[in-house]
Amino acid sequence: FTHFDTAGASTQETSMPVLKRTGSGPTKGQQPPEIDNSDLLSRPGSEKLQSGIMEQRDFILLHKEAWILLHSWYGGGPALKRRVISAATELRVELYPLSVSIYEVDLGGFPTTESKLDVIFSRSETVEDVIQNVATNLALEPSTEKMHLWYRPNLEDDQTDVETLEGWEQLQPVNAMLDELGLVDGGSLILETSVPTGVKLEGTQMSIANKGKWPFFNRLRIDFKKQHFKDPSDPTAELEVDDRIDASADEEKNAWDPDQKKMILRKTTSWYAATILTVEDQRLLLQFHNRAKPKSKKFSPESLVIRGEAADPIMVGGVYESLDSRGSWHQVTIAKKNDAVAKQEDSYEAYLHDEKHTWPLVLAENIREQSKLTEEARAGLAKVFARYASDGVIEGGGLRGLMSCATNEYIPDDSARVAALLKEPFGNGTGIEFAGFLEYWRQQVASSGGSGYWLQQELGRLFERVGVEMRSEADQLLAQGREWIEKGSPRLAQFRSRTEPGYKDDRDFRDFRRFDKLDVQFGAEWKKGEVDQVDWQTMTILV
Known about the structure:
Elements: E1 35-36, H1 64-74, E2 76-77, E3 84-87, E4 90-93, E5 98-104, E6 117-121, H2 127-137, E7 147-151, E8 169-170, E9 188-193, H3 215-228, E10 244-257, E11 262-279, E12 283-288, E13 305-306, E14 319-323, E15 329-337, E16 347-352, E17 357-363, E18 367-368, E19 372-373, H4 375-388, E20 394-395, H5 396-407, H6 416-422, E21 431-432, H7 434-448, H8 453-465, H9 473-478, E22 482-486, E23 492-493, E24 517-522, E25 525-530, E26 533-535, E27 540-542
Parallel strand pairs: 1-2, 5-9
Antiparallel strand pairs: 3-4, 5-6, 7-8, 7-9, 10-11, 10-23, 11-12, 12-22, 13-19, 14-15, 14-18, 15-16, 16-17, 20-21, 24-25, 26-27
Helix pairs in contact: 5-6, 5-8
């Protein structure tokens, strides 16, 4: 491997040495002096040649074996190794390879000046070659999986500045030659090594114990988010529309249970990047990025009604709802109050509307006021009625079409369901008006106890037919990856979403970077792809 010396006092810049060569050799019989190549160098301790020197005039090129022989006779040096590389259609000796400085970073991701290495690499070497050589000199494991190099590809950036964070990109792919990546001669590189499991990275807001943590990348990520994400816990920070912050969500995810030896659902808190869509006095509407959409929820019939309260007083002749022994509610008319001696104290006789008979004993505690449809339910049913009505009435043919949609079955002329709608108290024998239509569905929902599967299916089909969304506002927003969160909620943070470079990791939020490998779906077909550009403003990538 190529040996590099750690930079120190001996490598400080000095005045340019002057070449001294003579055409005459030593006096006959005298030992020639030791080899001295030092004045070929740009500065002491460096292997970089001065500019302007010429082969044959100032130096000659020797094969390795010839150099070893001469050096064994006369000593001296330093040995200036150069590689033969392919240039177009010919081979040539690379006199001026890349000269770069490499800085290691500490756990906080900060370059350390004492770790500086001044190194020379051939432009034909690959990133993997560089990592292996540097790792060997630093007594580290030479692994591209555990070591990353960073550089500044923009030539307008100061290539020697390792203090600022602007413009750094990972030097990759590992099989690319340095010349292909546009590495600058005299520039600086940053070397980071992944932190072992269980070590906490400095500057983080939470304990990190996941595999493959990268301190410099973590510092870049935090710096980026400090610049682009406001801190919701800062009372002076004025959150505005289009601001980006991080937000958490409690989710159920499959996880391996070593005791049961199978995958089980576990509740977990995940952090995501989010964009503010709406700002109110006490809450924010956020658009989550890369948060999985929840499974579609069907509305519950219970959400369509406001349940009646316990009836007090109970009036004879009044219409109420009464509970039977199976837990279902029925619409009843109170016929009379029972004699407390003959029957039971505080009980009533009631006429059952839907079954057309009388209950002789109904306890007062099982009687409540009539349930009412919510305004949302009335509005949804109004759209259904308008679709099938003509001149404010749905007649027999329209009712058959309506019930066919609701039941997803063919409804014949003599259908009992259609006949029930046409009878009082809903219809007039030939059709049904809107008030009767509402009363029919109110009774259906009220008597179902709010959990009737058939009722959920029937109303669900009718609402879907007319484009009515009966899910709660929160469920509708979640289906779009959106959610209202209180401003002071601990679910909000300046930066908490976990990100890592590379693609062989588990990320709740994919922080894409150039050269990431990924699968992309085109229509119904998945294809392998690679990230070419990342646009943070539109949250898109060019693949």
